[in-house]
Structure formats: structure tokens, C-alpha cells
């Protein structure tokens, strides 16, 4: 019975240690940036959010220790992303608090109303993100499962710290007389922009960009996929003397491997030569380069070997994970809102995923298993943003606000615009730290998250709501229902 090794991965102690150091450093910088921003913008309330953020991290590491979870490099990425997303709930509460105080309510009553009104948006948005994290934990393998673990624990911990810890801090401060009034910056003023009237234009632009993304992806073909999906060898070498990429490609022609991908990547002060080649060729490449460039004194820092069978299985599991995530989110949003909202949310989600992958292809990057985790995270983040807007629309309809459904939607988008920009900005701060300081291993991951945040913020405003409005109008005309537009009442 012959045995064939289908997957083999190794990393040197030096590269592993350096990667962890850069990941931890990026996390600390991301934490400092997020904490500084909310402290300057929300002042005392920002200090309370900072305390909740620290408790969130203590809970996260404590739970991981209790259950003996191993911290992987993608797991560190999950923690960094959690830092940015944890601020989301606090921003939702504080922006609600600003609205309640503007009505003239006393501080204690305004706080109570802010937490009560923000709860549904926080709960729904976190549950939809949790669905993708759990599916990723179920279907993922290896390091990406570590990312799913930290993201799942982080979501639960952030809900606890935002809804319970901060509320108790405020109640204690008010009861003890330390807090008598809350002051916040207000850089994003109230707007009254007619977003819905731009629906056709924005959806047309999105459709065009989607076509371009699909076209670029199709033209690149197999070049879109890394060895995780199509099989092959990955060799990461460190040299004491730099060797030009062109010289390496010329050397590879001698063993008919000129089609291999040769790149130079930097991690801190070190520079690595990365070679992606056909399955079972990395040993020959290592031997050849040491013979051709003895002065470089190459040292193997990482070596991955993935067979075709494993690559096919990973690709299949990734598609299944994405499909299950979409189905789970669709069912949940339909149950919590209406079919029109669920349909619009899923279309916006697919819009964000396609554009993110399209940007990945446009910049000549390769999809790997870690990027699958990033794409699923984008799906969760996209839904998170959309749910907040839909929750405000649902609230407006439940109050029987005057005007058509279109005017209610416009009002809801304008009311949540400040929150959308603030939460997107804080998550971007954490992800930028990961992008610039996380090293080459997490560079593509951070790039994917950055693109997804920008695209997701756009779609939650200009794509999801217009589609929900159009679907409700079409179904009403189809069934010839004479009810007014506000008949699309949320449960």
C-alpha cells in the first residue's frame, strides 16, 4: 500500500518568532489607535469604552487559556479585528445617547433609553457575524480555525463588555456623583441627503464594477489561486546576500520551472525570497539555488507542500462555508426582519464579496486559505453594517412615522450615517496597523479586510436599502395590494 504525502507545512523557529512579534506589535498599535480615537472623540464615555475594551481582551485570553486554545498567527489577526469591531457596539450606544440627550432627557433616563434602543442593532449585527465565524470554525482547517476561535470568543466578549460593563460603569459614575453630564465631539453633523434617489445610479455603478471584477478574475484564471487551492510547493528563503528575482527566474529555466512565481517580501528588517512552484519541486529548487548562488547562503525559513487532492478539498470546503454562511444569514435576517430586507442584505453581501475578490485579482494577489477567512469576515462585517441601517428603518416603521417607505429609509440612513463612518473608521485604524506592521504573512489578509470595509460601508448605504425598496414595490404591484408603502412593517 503506497503512501503519498498530500500536505506538509514547516516553518523555522526564527520566522515563526518574528511573525508572532510583528503580529503582537500590530495588535498593540491597533489597540492604542482605537483607544486614543474613542477617548478623544467621546471623552469620559470614551474612557468607559476603553475600560470595556481592556476587559474584552482579558476575557478573550482567559477563555482561550481555560479551554487550551492555541494562538495562531491568523488568531492574532482575529484579535486585532475584534479590537476594531468591539468599538462598534459602543459607538452605537453613544450615538443613541447623543440623540436622547438632544431631546432634553436627564442623563440617567437618556442612558437607559440609549442602551434599550441600541440593543436590537447590536444583537442582530453580532449574531450575523457570529454565524459566519461558527461556520468558518466548522469547515476551516489548521491556522484559519484559530482565527475563527478568536473571532467567535471576541464577538461574545465584546457584547458582554459593551452591554453590561459599560452600563454598570455609567450607573456607578452617576450614582456616585462623578458623572453629571456627558460631552462628546460631533464632527459628523446631521445630514438630510436624499440617498434613495441615487439608488439607480449607485446600483448601475456597482453592476459595472462587478462585471469588471469578474472579467479580471476570469482573465487571470488559475493565477488567482495559491497553492492551498491548486496544489504546489511554497519555498521561503532568507539570504545573507540579496539575489535579484530575475537571476532566480533565469536559474529556474535550467530545470524547466520558469513558470514558477518568484517574489521578494519584507518582514521588518528582513527580506525573504518566496517561490511558488509545481508540486514536488521545492527540494530541487533549493538545491539548484544553493549551487548557483553559493555566496547567498540561502536558508529555508518556510516550506509548504500541498497535493492536488488537498487543494481540491480546500476549495470545495471554502465554497461550502461561504454558501452555508449566506444561507444562515438569509434565514436569520428573514426571521428578524422581512424577506425584502433579507434579499437586499444577501445581494449587498455578495456585492461586497465579489468586489473584494475582484480587487484582490486586480492587484495580482493569490487567494489562500487565510484569505477565505478574511472573505467570510467581510461577509459578516457587511451584514453587520447593513443590519444597523435596517434596524433603524424597522424602528421608523414600527413608530408609524409619516411619509413613504422611501422617506423613512432616507431618514434612517441619514440618522445612522455618523455611526457608519465612525465604526468603519475605527476598524480601519486596527486593520491599517495589521497591514503595515503585521508582516508579509498577514499583509494580504489585512488588504482584504480594508477593501471589504470600504466596499461594505458603501453597499450598506447605496445598495441594500434601494433593493429592499424596489422589491417591496414590485411585490405589492404583483399582488395588486393597495396598501401604502409603509405596509412593509418589520416584525
What does this structure look like?
- The protein is of the alpha+beta class.
- The termini are far apart.
- Helix 3 packs parallel to helix 5.
- A hairpin with a 2-residue loop joins strand 3 and strand 4.
- It is 71% helix and 7% strand.
- A five-stranded antiparallel beta sheet has the order 1-5-2-4-3.
Uncertain ranges: 481-491
DSSP, total strands: 5
Tell me about the largest β-sheet: 5 strands, antiparallel
Q: Widest sheet: strand order?
A: 1-5-2-4-3
Q: What general form does the structure show?
A: globular
How would you state the average pLDDT, rounded?
83
Q: What is the fold's blueprint, element by element?
A:
Layout (H helix, E strand, L loop, with lengths): L6 E5 L1 H30 L1 H23 L6 H30 L4 H33 L3 H33 L23 H22 L6 H4 L1 E7 L6 H8 L8 E7 L2 E8 L4 H11 L6 E8 L1 H29 L2 H24 L6 H30 L6 H33 L2 H23 L1 H15 L13
Antiparallel strand pairs: 1-5, 2-4, 2-5, 3-4
Helix pairs in contact: 1-2, 1-3, 1-13, 2-3, 2-5, 3-4, 3-5, 3-13, 4-5, 4-10, 4-12, 6-11, 10-11, 10-12, 11-12, 11-14, 11-15, 12-13, 12-14, 13-14
Summarize the entry for a quick read.
The protein has 491 residues and is an alpha+beta fold.
Short descriptors:
single chain; 491 residues; alpha+beta; 5-stranded antiparallel sheet; 15 helices; 7% strand; globular; disordered C terminus
Amino acid at each position: 500500500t503506497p503512501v503519498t504525502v498530500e500536505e506538509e507545512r514547516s516553518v523555522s523557529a526564527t520566522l515563526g518568532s518574528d511573525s508572532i512579534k510583528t503580529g503582537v506589535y500590530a495588535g498593540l498599535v491597533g489597540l492604542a489607535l482605537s483607544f486614543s480615537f474613542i477617548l478623544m472623540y467621546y471623552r469620559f464615555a470614551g474612557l468607559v469604552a476603553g475600560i470595556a475594551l481592556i476587559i474584552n481582551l482579558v476575557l478573550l485570553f482567559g477563555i482561550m487559556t481555560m479551554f487550551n486554545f492555541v494562538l495562531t498567527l491568523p488568531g492574532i489577526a482575529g484579535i486585532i479585528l475584534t479590537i476594531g469591531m468591539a468599538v462598534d457596539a459602543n459607538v452605537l450606544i453613544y450615538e443613541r445617547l447623543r440623540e436622547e440627550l438632544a431631546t432634553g432627557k436627564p442623563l440617567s433616563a437618556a442612558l437607559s433609553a440609549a442602551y434599550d434602543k441600541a440593543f436590537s442593532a447590536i444583537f442582530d449585527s453580532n449574531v450575523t457575524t457570529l454565524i459566519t465565524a461558527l461556520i468558518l470554525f466548522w469547515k476551516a482547517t489548521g491556522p484559519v480555525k484559530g482565527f475563527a476561535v478568536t473571532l467567535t470568543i471576541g464577538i461574545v466578549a465584546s457584547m458582554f463588555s459593551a452591554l453590561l460593563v459599560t452600563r454598570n460603569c455609567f450607573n456607578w459614575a452617576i450614582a456616585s456623583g462623578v458623572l453629571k453630564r456627558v460631552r462628546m465631539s460631533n464632527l459628523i453633523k446631521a445630514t438630510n441627503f436624499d440617498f434613495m434617489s441615487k439608488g439607480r445610479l449607485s446600483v448601475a455603478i456597482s453592476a459595472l464594477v462587478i462585471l469588471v471584477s469578474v472579467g479580471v478574475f476570469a482573465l487571470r484564471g488559475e493565477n488567482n489561486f495559491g497553492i492551498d487551492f491548486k496544489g504546489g510547493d511554497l519555498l521561503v528563503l532568507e539570504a545573507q546576500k540579496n539575489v535579484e528575482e530575475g537571476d532566480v527566474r533565469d536559474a529556474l529555466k535550467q530545470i524547466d520551472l520558469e513558470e514558477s512565481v518568484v517574489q521578494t517580501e519584507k518582514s521588518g528588517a528582513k527580506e525573504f525570497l518566496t517561490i511558488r512552484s509545481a508540486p514536488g519541486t521545492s527540494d530541487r529548487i533549493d538545491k539548484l539555488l544553493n549551487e548557483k548562488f553559493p555566496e547567498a547562503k540561502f536558508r529555508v525559513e518556510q516550506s509548504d507542500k500541498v497535493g492536488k487532492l488537498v487543494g481540491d478539498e480546500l476549495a470545495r470546503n471554502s465554497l461550502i462555508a461561504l454558501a452555508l454562511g449566506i444561507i444562515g444569514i438569509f434565514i436569520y435576517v428573514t426571521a428578524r426582519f422581512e424577506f425584502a430586507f433579507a434579499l437586499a442584505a444577501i445581494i449587498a453581501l455578495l456585492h461586497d464579496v465579489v468586489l473584494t475578490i475582484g480587487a484582490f485579482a486586480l492587484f495580482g494577489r493569490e487567494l489562500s486559505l487565510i484569505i477565505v477567512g478574511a472573505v467570510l469576515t467581510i461577509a459578516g462585517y457587511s451584514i453587520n453594517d447593513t443590519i444597523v441601517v435596517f434596524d433603524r428603518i424597522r424602528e421608523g416603521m414600527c413608530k408609524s412615522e409619516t411619509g413613504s417607505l422611501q422617506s423613512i429609509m432616507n431618514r434612517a440612513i441619514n440618522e445612522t450615517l455618523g455611526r457608519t463612518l465612525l465604526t468603519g473608521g475605527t476598524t480601519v485604524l486596527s486593520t491599517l496597523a495589521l497591514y503595515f506592521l503585521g508582516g508579509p504573512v498577514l499583509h494580504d489578509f489585512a488588504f482584504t479586510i480594508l477593501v471589504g470595509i470600504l466596499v461594505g460601508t458603501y453597499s450598506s448605504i447605496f445598495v441594500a436599502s434601494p433593493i429592499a425598496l424596489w422589491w417591496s414595490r414590485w411585490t405589492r404591484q404583483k399582488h395588486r395590494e393597495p396598501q401604502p408603502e409603509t405596509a412593509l412593517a418589520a416584525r
